[in-house]
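re the bet — no i am not wrong, look at it urself. input seq straight from the record:
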Amino acid sequence: MDHDRLISIDRRTMERAYALHSGFRVGAAVPGSDSSVHAGCNVENESKDESRS
């Protein structure tokens, strides 16, 4: 797998990150053994603890 292609996919994936709280977008692109590329990004979520007063 071409390193420049992985970086390009990583940057495109990073644009899809949802980092509302930290503002830190993370993307990753990992080559598979069969020339496929597995990509993902962070998605932040916040939940409110209703049990706390």
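see?? The longest helix spans residues 3-14. told u. also The longest strand covers residues 27-31. so pay up
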